[in-house]
Amino acid sequence: MSIRAKKINRLLMLATAPFAGLLVIMLLQSNQVAVPLDIEKYAPVNHLSDQSQQILTHLKQAEKVAVQTSSSIERTTKLYNQTTSTMSHIVQTASSQASKPEQIYNKRITSKLGAASEKVNSQRINIELYRLNPGTYKAYAMKIKLKEPSAMNMTLGKDSWGGAETTLTAVQRSGAIAGINAGGFADGGGKRYPLSTTVLNGKYINGFQSTFKDLFFVGMNKTGQLIGGKFTSKANLDALDPSFGASFVPVLIQNGKKVPIPAKWKASPLRAPRTVIGKYKDDQIIVIVADGYNENGSSGATLVELQNKLYKMGVVDAYNLDGGGSTSLILNGRVINHPSDGNLRPVPTHFLFFK
C-alpha cells in the first residue's frame, strides 16, 4: 500500500471515530433501558416469588391443621384409654359381682364339709376331698365341679360287656384322676353284667329296661349335668339326652325332697360300706363313700343316715350306688377308702373323672 493510501485511511478513521463512539454509546444505553423493562414484564422471578408465597401460606395452614389434628388425636387417644380402662374396670367389677352368689353358695357347701384334705384343680375339673366322721360311721366326701362335660365318663370293666375290673385298674387304664364304683351287677356264666339299663357313649348297651321295683338310672347328660330317677319309657329317658349311666337301688333325694326308702333297704343290711352320688343346685357333684368292715350290717352307714346327711348339706338329687365290697374311691392313684373285702372288688361299671 502506498503512503498516500495510508494517509487517506487514517483520515477516514479519524473522521468517523466520533460517529462510531456515539453509536456504541447509544447501543449501550438502549440495552440498559430495555433490559429492565423486559425483566419487569416477563421475568419469572417475581412470578415464582408469588407462588412461593402461596405455597408458604398453604404450608403454614397445613401445619396449623396438623397441630390441631395431632392435638385432637391426642385428646381422642387419652379419652379412648380412659374409656377402655373404665370399661375394663366395669367388666371386672361385673364379673366379680356375678361370681359372688356362686362363691357364697360354695362357701355354704364347704362350711358343712369342713376343710379339704386334698384338692385337684385343672382347666377341666375341680375336686376337693373331705373326711367325714359324724360319730356313727367314717366316710369320705368328694366334691366335684365339672368345667367340661368330658371331665366325667363311665367305663365298662375291661371295656367289654360282661367284663369286670377294680376301680383302681379302670382309673389307671383310662388315665383318670379319680374314680368310684357305679351301678349294680348280676353274675352269670362266669361273667359280671351291669344291672338293668346301662348307657355308654349315648347308646343303650343292652337295650332299655323299664324301671321296676326300686331300681333307678343315674348318669350324666351330654351337657355335663347329673341326671337320674325312675323311667318307665325309653322316650322319657331319651328326653334327658343321656351320655352314660348305670342302674341300682334306691333313690335317696329327688328335686330337693327325701324319697321314702323301702323298708327292706333300710334293714338289709342295716349298716354297710356305701357309695352314694348326688348333685347340688349349681350342678356340682358330691360323692360320699362310707367305710365298713363287712357286709353283715354291723359297721358302716345306714341309708337313712346318708340321706339325712345329704339333705342337710343341701343336695337336691342323690342316688345310692352299689356298696359293700364294691365300694371304692380312687384319687390321685391311691385307694382312699378301706375296702371291706380287704381288696378292691372287680365290678362291671365305674364312674371316672379326668383332669
From TrEMBL:
- Record domain Phosphodiester glycosidase: where: 175-354
Q: EC number(s)?
A: 3.1.4.45
Instruction: Give the Gene Ontology MF terms in alphabetical order.
Output: N-acetylglucosamine-1-phosphodiester alpha-N-acetylglucosaminidase activity
- UniProt xrefs under Pfam families: NAGPA
In its keyword annotation, does this UniProt entry include Hydrolase?
yes
The source's superkingdom equals Bacteria
The name of this protein is: N-acetylglucosamine-1-phosphodiester alpha-N-acetylglucosaminidase
Q: Which organism is it from?
A: Paenibacillus nuruki
